[in-house]
Write a structure and sequence with these properties.
heterodimer, A: alpha+beta, 2 domains, 6-stranded mixed barrel, two-stranded antiparallel sheet, elongated, B: alpha/beta, Rossmann fold, 4-stranded antiparallel β-sheet, disordered N terminus, P-loop_NTPase (chain B), ATP-binding (chain B), ATP hydrolysis activity (chain B)
Chain lengths: 376, 243
């Protein structure tokens, strides 16, 4: 530490340039983290907020599009309700629709069809809960998109009219579309393409997208056994995120970019400290000749790397948070999550330290005898 | 050259207490290179330097002078022979032990000082005191020692802000700060003019006597030998008292 700090101060321009590169990587990491969390929230917050532990979809359904392709018979709900460890099972319907308000505002909605008296019926921050036949409870983000309490929206082509009666407590979106909770009967009519005033076909009245299952607190449900009994295929709530449109592709792409950034961070730190270690060889020889142990020299070098990386990452995260605060709410799916950002920052420091460690380890091979003679 | 009688390189037995506090090398040999090509860097070298004595080693380049310092300071292990500093065996196999012995008993003065660019003159002296375990961090007061070598007013200067002679003064003070038993000095006047060279070697002689440190100085500079108590000549790895 004695020498590390003094060298940081003495060669501050050199270290500042290096720190600037790490800080820029940290800024990029915060932005990517914000985009990741924002995209996840935009893609599946509607699912995340459901009090559900698993969904039972139709057998052999394509997993990455299960919410749009699955059709399950209503009778599966009772089968699931009877399974050991299941606290609640309720029908769940899902479909995406284009709507237009009476003012002409076009709003896309992800309809979540639920029974108003089931455990899936959402709490509201304003207005009233689900109950009336044509009443819908929408995500607060739908208000940002142009909806208002009391508005009536008309579903394109079908002509079904739904009235906004309540607003959920937090952002509920699915596949980047605002969620609207709708009574199951209304959802079945919309899903089957039944026009207003026309009787709901018998078959449509028994079809749902999936059975939403909630396990008893602290217990797990034997999903394969339930699937065998109900003729379904279950996904846990987290697995079901992958069935949200575009979710897997988006998160995989961002994770790949983050992975590359971690690798770049380690390489940049490694390359810088490799050059630094080579330049310091004569000094290290003097230090060793003066009686510095290998451990002392390594500790000093790694402390230097740690101070530089931690300071640069902290500055980068600070800039990233400031930029993120400007972006949040601008329409870009961006959300700052301190746990994610802290983990990303720590990852940058640790991987940078690994890169620096791999570089400075070479100073252990410096022969102190080279400090003698005209070697310097 | 000193007015004292010319000493011998190998005849003084290292069996009295004062010798044990200094440097004693007996029948030391060292080879460099590999099986195909070897160089006899040190050839059956005997050397005794008592506390307070300034011994000079002269000789042509490649004669083995730096190897002598390296072996004396525990930077290299000899193939044969014994080396003791303050009674401690400097040829033990453990590099860690030799490093610790060097830290406690040996001070090095390098060509041009070999100061660390990031450190002020005062910090150059504080550095050796930081190298050991916390419990062993004792030594002289760096600022007082800087004053002793005439550098009190330049304690906050870094090496690039000092002249060659000033750098060498700081280097000498740095070597003395841990209160070593032996000072190993490598070409201290190599980059200095004649006047500065005399000042530096006078300083070394004064400090050696004042602090009872055994000093071995390797040099090409015959002008400064007058300040030395003993002078040895090294040729092809063999050490002999100078005529």
């Amino acid at each position: 530490m004695f020498l590390a700090i003094r060298e940081l101060s003495f060669a501050r321009l050199r270290f500042a340039l290096m720190g600037a590169v790490i800080a820029l990587i940290a800024v990029l990491m915060v932005m990517l983290s914000g985009l990741s969390v924002g995209l996840v929230r935009d893609g599946v917050s509607g699912l995340q907020n459901l009090p559900v532990t698993s969904f039972a979809f139709a057998q052999d359904v394509q997993r990455d599009s299960a919410f749009s392709r699955s059709v399950v018979d209503l009778s599966a709900v009772d089968e699931w309700d009877a399974q050991p460890g299941v606290a609640d099972a309720a029908p769940f319907g899902n479909t995406l629709v284009n709507t237009r308000t009476d003012r002409g505002t076009e709003v896309d909605l992800a309809l979540f069809g639920v029974q108003p008296d089931s455990f899936l019926s959402p709490s509201v921050s304003q207005g009233e809960r689900l109950g009336t036949e044509d009443g819908i409870v929408v995500s607060p983000t739908a208000l940002d998109a142009g909806l208002q309490m009391g508005d009536t929206v008309t579903i394109d082509r079908l002509g079904t009219r739904l009235r906004v009666v309540g607003v959920t407590k937090q952002q509920d979106t699915f596949g980047h579309v605002d969620v609207a909770y709708v009574p199951l009967a209304a959802w079945q009519a919309i899903k089957s393409g039944t026009a207003p005033g026309t009787a709901l076909p018998q078959r449509a009245a028994t079809e749902i997208t999936a059975v939403a299952v909630r396990a008893d607190d602290g217990k797990s449900v034997d999903l394969p056994a339930g699937d065998t009994a109900a003729g379904t295929e279950s996904l846990t709530l987290k697995e079901s995120y992958g069935a949200s449109p575009g979710y897997t592709a988006e998160t995989t792409t961002l994770q790949l970019i983050q992975g590359f950034l971690y690798a770049i961070s380690a390489l940049v730190a490694g390359a810088f400290f490799a050059v630094w270690a080579i330049q310091r060889k004569p000094e290290v020889a003097v230090l060793r000749a003066l009686g510095a142990s290998t451990g002392w020299v390594l500790r000093d070098a790694l402390t230097q790397a740690l101070v530089l990386l931690a300071a640069a990452v902290a500055i980068g995260v600070g800039i990233g948070l400031a930029l993120g605060a400007l972006i949040t709410g601008s329409g870009i799916p961006f959300a700052l999550s301190m746990p994610s950002i802290s983990a990303a920052g720590a990852g940058l420091v640790v991987l940078g330290l690994v890169g620096a460690g791999a570089a400075v380890i070479r100073i252990t091979s410096v022969d102190p005898a080279t400090a003698l003679g005209g070697n310097r | 050259m000193s007015s004292r009688p010319a000493p011998t390189a190998s005849t003084t037995p290292a069996d009295d207490a004062s010798e044990r506090l200094g440097l004693v090398m007996r029948a030391v040999s060292l080879r460099h290179g590999n099986a195909a090509e070897t160089v006899q860097a040190l050839d059956d070298v005997d050397l005794t330097v008592r506390p307070g004595e300034l011994a000079a080693v002269v000789g042509p380049s490649g004669a083995g002078k730096s190897s002598l310092l390296a072996v004396a300071g525990g930077l290299a292990r000899p193939d044969h022979g014994t080396v003791t500093v303050a009674g401690q065996d400097m040829t033990v196999p453990s590099r860690r032990t030799r490093t610790e012995l060097r830290r406690r008993h040996v001070g090095f003065v390098f060509q041009s000082g070999n100061l660390l660019p990031a450190l002020t003159a005062a910090d150059q002296l504080r550095l050796p005191l930081q190298l050991g375990p916390r419990s062993q961090r004792s030594g002289r007061d760096p600022l007082k020692l800087l004053a002793d070598v005439g550098m009190a007013d330049k304690a906050d200067r870094r090496p690039h802000q000092l002249s060659g002679g000033e750098r060498q003064r700081v280097g000498i003070a740095r070597a003395l700060v841990t209160e070593p038993s032996v000072l190993l000095v490598d070409e201290p006047t190599a980059a200095l003019d004649r006047a500065r060279s005399h000042e530096i070697v006078q300083l070394l002689a004064r400090e050696a006597r004042h602090r009872s440190v055994a000093v071995v100085m390797v040099t090409h500079d015959h002008d400064v030998l007058q300040y030395c108590d003993t002078v040895y000549e090294m040729v092809d790895g063999k050490l002999a008292a100078s005529s």
